[in-house]
Every structure is written in structure tokens, then in C-alpha cells.
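input
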Amino acid sequence: MIFIKFFTVFTICQFCLTSCICQLLTISTTNYDYDGNRMAPIILVHGVTKSQIMGKYSSPGPLKCPVSNGWEHLWMNVDIAFSGTHYQKCWAYRLKLLYDRSRHKCTNQVGVQTRVEGSFGSLGASDFVTDNFAARLLPDFQYFHKFITAFEMRGYTKDFSLKLAPYDWRYAPPQIGETGYYTRLTRLIEQTATQTGRKVALVAHSMGGLVLAYFLNQKPQAWKNQYIQVLITSGTPWLGSAEALNKYIEGEDYGAPTIDKSVILTLSQSFQSLAYLLPQEEAFAKTVLVEWVPKGRKYTAQNYQQFFQDAGFIDGYLMRQDLRHLYPVPLNRLGVKYVCTWANSSKIETPITYRIKSDKLTDTSDYEKVNTVGDAVVPLKSLRYCEKFPHAIVKGFQGHSHTGLIKSDEFFDYVSSVVSQAQPVGAQAQPGGSQGRPGRAQGQPGGSQGQPGGSQAQPSGISTRG
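output
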């Protein structure tokens, strides 16, 4: 889970021509063909922050914000980088969630309606994560764009064999279901399989893997046998990620000094998905995730209540308690052929511990970040948790980052090989597929797998903020 960086208008304009030329030069050829290799239709599922969210407002709210006449882009709205503090506060207010302690639910602000951009199944919500044309030329704003382009070259077509199942990433999987998402996803899978005559491949990135695991664990085995060819996950934080804690410590400015970090801090803290993605309690019970140096306090995953009390945001702990039972994910109940992919970045740059040097625990940039092995967002211990489940095919990629992996030719070719020779709809599923030895990783391991409650890979590398 990584938040997108903003750039100045000058940087965007300067980058536009270079980006266009580079993208033209990096288009690669492929030996795969949708019809020739009988490839499965693909439904993509994105990670946190990686779909565009629209908003409509019927009330100015306590901040006296302008009322819209129709739907407007809330996420990602690059205008906040070039607007004043009041505009930023109005934007954050309308994207922020409210936590109801009695109902254990999160909701929009009163008078605010939200929806994911585009029609369900269309690729627009996550092809790019903004509607701003200039920003779309920057790699940070291109999400599934390269994947879509690569598979169109393989003969896939939008709205037929290549689709997207976008969701409101502010919520955790159970509340995502309350929006009707899983009903729409079921219908999309059935329609796609029927239209193409082939079972469907589900390809998920990051939190999208957790969403699909939750979905599949609720579905009857007969339905999965009929419609699902394979589940492929990439960079999924099966045991959470320490980077989620950082969003409770410091607000983002996305590289734009005009953005008020405290506004973003208050916004991000309200997301239910952030509490959901915290490092799992048993797996990181002995790992110091936050050290508050001036106060001499250390917080592991077993100390979330104290951390949130000291941070002055007890709702974060309450939300976590609501969701804690969802971990560890029972991958042994998926009931489909499962391929788990992960990346180990070329540098040791994945956060595992935050050493706060300020007298304030939150709303501060005065801290050191202690890093460990991983994909720069999720530690290997969490990424490789999938290896312990029987019948999982595991593929490790070296030298790629969390999002960089799903933009790489190496990943495109691997996915192509997995989804080739798709079964027709309704064909008898082959138990376990062609998995080979359960839990055995392909490719060079990048670090210890770890078990829940086990020891963490040795942290290495420190970066200083402030």
C-alpha cells in the first residue's frame, strides 16, 4: 500500500514528451495470443488507493464547502496540490469516513455520496488513478495501464476478455460486501465466462488479493469449479504491512509542499482499510513496529491499544478489533487453483520499524525508518505467508517493487503462461491444478518466510525523516 506522489505543473509538463517517447520505445513483443493459446479471460482487482472515487454533495457541511451540481472526482484529485487549505479540508472532509462505535461500521459524511468511477467491469477506474490528462503521463499515476496494454497486444479486448472489478478501497472486505460488490463481482464473473466460453482468471494486486480471498471463501465449491480457472495474487500483504502504521504517524504531502500534512493525516486515519492492513498481531508480536524514543516506549503488534491511546485516536484500535478475526486468511479454503507472486526489491527499503524522535507521537516527520527485506511496501514475511498453504504455486521476482512488478514484462509473461490453456466453462476442475510440490517457491527466495508469531527477518537499513 503506497500513496501516490504529486508533482508540480512544471514537472508534469516537462515529463510529458519524454514519457510518451519512452512508452513507445518500451512496447515489447509477445509470443502469447488470446485465441492461439486459449487464454482465460482476466478480471483485475486493484489494491488500496488504486481506483478513482467520485463524490456528490448535498450539504456544505460544517466547513461551508461548495455544493456540487453533479459527480466530481474525489480520488485522485490533483487539484488539491494547487489549492488552498480550505479547499484541501473540504476535499478531505468529503472523502473521510465516520466510525460508528455502536454499529462497528464506517460511513460517509452526512450529505456525501460516493461511487467508484465508471461502469462495473470497465477498466477506467484503475487504468489510471486520476482523470487529469497531464498527470496520466507520469508513471506514478499509471496503475494497470501497462498491464492492459500488454494484454491487448496478446489479443485481449476491453469489455470482453479483459475487465476490472473496482471497489471502494476505503473499506475492509466485509463492508465492501455491504455495498453490493460481491454480488456484482459474481455476476461479472458469470457473464464473462459465459460470453467467452472459458473459465475466468482473477488477477489481484496488493489488498485486492485479500478482497478476493474473502470473496472466494464465501462461494460454493460447485460455483468455483464451474467459473474460476485460477486466482493470481501479486504483492498481497497476507499478514499486513508496517507501512499502514506510518499513515497514523505522519500525513502525506505527496511531494507537494502546498499540501497540509495534518489534513491528510486526519483523512487517512479514518479509512477502515488502513486498520485492516496493520501488521497481524501474532505474526509481529515480538517485532517493535514503533519506538517513541523521548518517552522510552516501544509498540509491537500486541500493543495496538496503547499505541492508539497515545496517538489520541482510539477509533483506530476499535476498528482493528472489529477486523482482527479476518487474520490469518484461510487460504486453504480458497477452493481454486492459486498462484501467489511476490517481489523482493533490489534495495532493502521496506519499512518495519518507525523510531519517533519527536515529543509528539503523530503529526510529525521527525522519525527514522528501519527497513527490512520486501517489495518496498510489504515485508517478505507477509508476502510469502502464502507458501505455507498446500497446493499454492509460488513465484518470486527479484529486483521489482510493490507496484513495479505488475508493470513489468516479466510479470506479463508469467501471467500469460498461467492463464493459457483455459478450461471451458463448467469443465471438471483439476484438484490443485499442476502445482507440483505444495508451498515450494519458484525463483530465488528473497528472505525467510516466517510463521505467525515467528521471528522477523533481521531489519537492515535506516532512513531519516525530519
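quick obs: The radius of gyration is 22 Å.
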